[in-house]
Amino acid sequence: MILFFISSSSSIPKPPLPGSNTITKWKGNKNKNDPSSGLAPSSSPSSEEQKLVDDRPAPGSAAPVEAPTSNFTMGAIPATGKMNATFVTLARNSDLWDIADSIRQVEDRFNRNYHYDWVFLNDKEFDENFKKVTTALVSGTTHYSTIPKEHWSFPDFIDQDKAKKVREDMAERKIIYGDSVSYRHMCRFESGFFFRQPVMQNYEWYWRVEPSVKLYCDVGFDPFRVMAENKKKYSFVISLYEYAETIPTIWDSAKKFMKQHPEHIAEGNSMKWLSDDDGESYNHCHFWSNFEVGNLNWLRSDAYIKFFETLDQDGGFFYERWGDAPVHSIAAGLLLKKEEIQFFDDIAYWHVPFTHCPTSEQKRLENKCACNPKDNFDWKGYSCTTRWFDMMGMEKPEGY
Ligand code: GDP
Ligand code: MN
Fold it and tell me: Using an 8 Å Cβ cutoff, are 196 and 301 in contact?
């Protein structure tokens, strides 16, 4: 069972002000002349955008790519064409062929028609081969960035002996990734830092992609635009119960935050989905964060940063094994109105070991889906999506 975990740190640099209109040059992608793109009119690049594309390095040149630039105003929705958005992948050089698989999935089902950028983040420098292969596969501009040490190390307030004992104990109890230091850095980074990397600053929207994932249906719409036009900030395709041993005290930290920062708790939030007793305890429901389409300005907001800092200071990324999935989920559940969270039924997805496959046969046929509906996790016992439907008053399939 693959679930997620996290931890925390001290001196966190303040993010730039959200909404600080960064207006720079848009760097599009190559395939603008791709006759197979079949773009809906509302998704075609405008002629203005077309003029600005095509200054990306030729595949294979693997030249270092500068920070992205865009002609977007933060918060504005362009009338047509692309949104100010990027794919983002955290990976090691050794993940190359697994991420190559994922990129093909995403390109074939979606991005060949849109050519969104793709940001790759790594705690070590990406090698030339990684850059060459991924740049050849991505139809938008690629960017490669090395994560600064402060975002991938133990905060100085962490007691190393205590953290080590926890890892030894979790190894003995056979808790998945329980003995791993790098996994903890990864979870803390995804919780608190990916959206603050300089390369991410000019974007407003992100779609997270992990190695070895699958997309089973054509995505014939722009999820970034759907999010923006419907005032969504966060989204999911699979939700489930977290492995309790990895997060014994995460809810204590969340409650501390709620007490200290009532001003950041949204009215009409998803507490009912997170808790069965009005917030007294956590039911362990979380959105599976290996897939995410979300708003970066929300993550960079004072509310989210304060939430992350409160959790980080409590040390649970290292004294337990908090995943970025429960951290993002609890934050989304408390800081956002429930209507700001989107369930993307149309995005059929697999990350070992779970599948989201649309329940509607019509939808599967129309979108050329290749998933077996029997594998759909939505209505299975360990899924929290049923509860999401209940809270939202959304209609569940008959006799699910
Ligand atoms: P799981 O899905 O919880 O089993 O965890 P993964 O092994 O898929 O890791 C989650 C994400 O973090 C993936 O995108 C990995 O490529 C990435 N990742 C995990 N560990 C490291 C690491 O040590 N360094 C880097 N650069 N990326 C990592
Ligand atoms: Mn994974």
Answer: no
Residue length of the chain: 400
Q: Complex ipTM, two decimals?
A: 0.99
Q: What is the rounded distance in angstroms from the CA atom of residue 235 to the CA atom of residue 340?
A: 8
- What pTM does this model have? 0.85
Residue 140 has pLDDT above 90, yes or no: yes
DSSP state letter for 244: G
Residue type, 51: K
pLDDT winner (highest mean) among 17-21, 26-30, 73-77, 230-234: 230-234
Ligand 2 centre to CA of 20 (Å) is 33
Q: Is the CB of 181 under 6 A from ligand 1?
A: no
Phi/psi of residue 289, each to 5°?
Answer: -85, 5
Is 242 noted as a catalytic residue in this protein?
A: no
- Is the CB of 98 inside a 6 Å radius of any atom of ligand 1? no
Counting from 1 in the atom list of ligand 1, the atom nearest the Cα of 122 is 26
At 122-139, the pLDDT tens digits run: 999 999 999 999 999 999
- 301-321 pLDDT tens trace: 999 999 999 999 999 999 999
End-to-end CA distance of the chain: 23
Please indicate whether residue 123, judged by its CB atom, sits closer than 6 Å to ligand 1: yes
